[in-house]
Amino acid sequence: MRRLFSILSVFLLFFACDNAPSYKITGQISSDSMNGQTIYLDNFLWYVQASKQKSFDSTVIKGKTFEFKGKTDSSYMAFLTVGGRPLTMVFVENGIIKVEIPADDDPDKSIVSGTKLNDLFKLYNESMEPTKNKLTELQQYAVSQQDTPELELEIEEKFKAVLEEMLQVSVKFLEENPGTLLSAYILMNAISLEISTESMLDAYNKLDESVKNSVFGKLIGREVEKLKVKDLEVGEMFRDVTLKTPDDKDISISDYAGKGKYVLLDFWASWCGPCRAENPNVVALYKEYKDKGFEIVGISLDTDKDAWIKGIKDDGITWPQMSDLKRGNSEAAAKYKVRGIPFTVLLDKDGKVLETGLRGQALKDKLKALIP
User: Fold this and answer.
1) Which domain holds residue 263?
2) 20 to 30 A Cα–Cα from 86, which one of 46, 223, 233, 291?
3) pLDDT tens-digit readout, 202-260
4) Quick one: 14 exposed, middle or buried, by C-beta within 10 A (0-12, 13-18, 19+)?
5) Which residues contact 53 (CB under 8 A, 6 or more apart)?
6) Measuring CA to CA, which residue among 113, 96, 108 is closest to residue 135?
7) C-beta separation of 266 from 294 below 8 A
8) Cβ(195)–Cβ(167) below 8 Å
9) Per-residue model confidence (pLDDT) at position 82
10) Nearest 5°: phi and psi at 101?
């Protein structure tokens, strides 16, 4: 009897483990071009520099299908990628998740469904479709017309109106679904729509504490704190920060600002295409004005030190450089409310802000006017 009871206990234990909550992601790809390739379940947090783990799992695509199985104690976000290219985003949670990827591999056209968060995300994307279509039509209209200052103004106004619509849809969805990981993701996206600080704080405060305390929620919290930083104003003194040079020495903005020279704070990164395209122009200006009371301090938002150093060398940069190798979490980027790069801040001889965002011909004209 004792032996029978032992066998029964093992059987029940096995049965209980086998029925523990789990997930299964089944994928169908319309095109057979990816057959035989490896598809990865990549960590979303790795892409925003919040985790050192890049991939959770991988499998091979066979017969235009793939499958992932696993168990999770809490929901998390992941990208399905092939060859480093994202196919779609998935909320990984226990249950059966279905993924449909179109023939053109367009992430915006992929469909993910089957569980609560993925169904909500599908609903959110559908609610955003009308405004996305308006953006597409606006882009097509701009390309079809002859470029004029009047057209640029018209397009800018219409673009702002569409972004406002997108923002309103996002805020409404946030209010209706405050307690999910999806809400945190939507809130992060809303930052790129330049939501006001007041609206952002209001939306953030409506999130459940469980969401705020998640890894992704804490990322949002840091972004919210950045929004509280006062915008740069013309005439204000520079905001000092101390970072590291490529050879690991401390360097501060105050080492150069307010010392009787015009100083350009140049926010850039080796991975930023527009920054690298602008560098030859800045190099030429530095050669022309560096001995006439002009200095540049490069502030890199790189994360890879070797790539940063290589970018400096390849572009012929000779002015001082500083970085904490934290990309969007850079202390300097936070202090100067940098939302995108390249970004510049021009300081006068006393260290006060003269102008921001100068690039190309505008920067050249400004220096010509300031320095005979």
Assistant:
1) 242-370
2) 223
3) 778 877 887 788 777 787 787 777 777 788 889 999 999 999 999 999 999 999 999 99
4) exposed
5) 43, 46
6) 108
7) no
8) yes
9) 93
10) -115, 125
Nearest to 275 by CA among 360, 346, 365, 194: 360
Domain boundary among 192, 227, 262: 227
Q: What is the pLDDT of residue 192?
A: 63
Residue 285 · residue 357 · CB < 8 Å? no
Q: Cα–Cα distance between 299 and 263 in angstroms, integer?
A: 13
336 & 223 share domain = no
| Strand ranges in the chain using DSSP code E only, listed in sequence order | 23-29, 38-43, 55-60, 65-70, 76-82, 85-92, 95-101, 111-113, 242-244, 250-252, 262-268, 294-300, 321-322, 343-347, 353-356
Rounded distance between C-alpha atoms, residue 143 and residue 131, angstroms:
19
Give pLDDT tens digits for 251-295.
999 999 999 999 999 999 999 888 999 999 999 999 999 999 999
Domain boundary among 64, 92, 113: 113
φ, ψ at 59 (rounded to 5°): -155, 170
User: What CATH number does residue 325 fall under?
Assistant: 3.40.30.10
Distance CA 269, CA 288 (A): 23
Q: Which residue has the tokens 């704190």?
A: 225
102 and 80 in one domain? yes
As for how many domains the chain has, the answer is: 3
